[in-house]
Amino acid sequence: FQPWTDPAAKPLIEFRNVIKRFGDFTAVNDVSLGIYEREFFALLGPSGCGKTTLMRMVAGFDDPTTGDVLLAGQSVKGLPPYSRPVNMMFQSYALFPHMSVEKNIAFGLEMDRLPKGEIAARVEEMLKLVKLESFAKRKPHQLSGGQRQRVALARSLAKKPKVLLLDEPLGALDRKLREETQFELMDLQMTLGMTFLIVTHDQEEAMTVADRIAVMDHGKLIQVATPSEIYEQPISRYVADFIGDVNIIEGRVESAAPVVTIVSEAAGTRVEVNSDTAVNAGDTVYFAIRPEKIAISPDAPAETGVNALSGTVFDIGYLGDVSVFHVRLDGGRTIRATVANRHRLIDRPISWDDRVWLTWGRDSGVVLTR
Ligand code: ATP
After folding, report:
1. Which candidate among 108, 131, 327, 369 keeps its CA 20 to 30 Å from the CA of 163?
2. DSSP string, 168-220
3. With a cut of 0.85, is the ipTM above it?
4. Pocket test for ligand 1, best of 26, 31, 51, 92 (most atoms within 8 A of CB)
């Protein structure tokens, strides 16, 4: 399932050079993007980067200042929210407190004056979908947070929109419930064959649920790619840093592709990396490597001058599945290396204040120019 790789595929939602200004503040800055039918797409970025504004323009709560939003190839300019084939579920999924679960779910259908029998059937279908059949008569205050969240979901799906917009839908749930609900959402999206567009500032959430992620910064799309591409091949330090943990080693290019060689005086090593990043000798670049791709050992490697650093362990973070070793290099900077705890930890092979070597292979990081 990768419709975005098919040049003939037509996006279901399309942003064309969308700019949104509030006064002289630009909240969304020239966004062009296609989202496909059946795709689970995440807009990810820090608070204030314009994610929600972008989503609101699909829903019809905001209109672009310039540019266009299309649904199934048609511009939705001037189309009010209720006549768009989309539904938005909000951060604070306010249910009507005085109405039962089934009444809450039925509300939109009753506004649309669907026949009674049809409404009853749809409500039953939705209750089954979110596994709340036995809760139909309860009021929202008689439900747990997770159950309320599922009622809200059922309510947004009742009108069978083509697109479901989710604005930080799981923000109010605790971690365990949030993870469970992420899988339920994915399941639901697959079962219904719908397009889900989610706004989140939680990178793990985006990585878990989404087919593709758009990383945003200051109203701009910085990178649009699958979770693994975003993680393994970030296009900038900003993306590398926003998604997961990363070590950045700055240096000067000595020789270019296919093996980029970087001399880093600050870190005190030469870095050799298989990379097709377009660089020239003399350029300042950034070698970005994830902590789990660095091996840590008390023993010096055969070759100490390339892809190798030495330093002293000054902190060890034990996270259960992994341990994070914080190593201070002789020059003073810190590198983090993560080791999977495959066996029960009785005795640590490496401890605080130990001298260690950090090494990695030529395919273990990326060369960034910005
Ligand atoms: P968050 O995760 O905090 O919701 P976001 O990435 O969704 O952030 P937006 O809500 O899209 O961010 O807002 C982007 C920027 O536009 C913010 O700086 C916000 O203050 C500004 N903004 C949003 N709506 C309006 C408005 N109606 N009037 C003026 N400024 C606005």
Report:
1. 131
2. STTTTS-HHHHHHHHHHHHHHHHHHT-EEEEEES-HHHHHHH-SEEEEEETTE
3. yes
4. 51
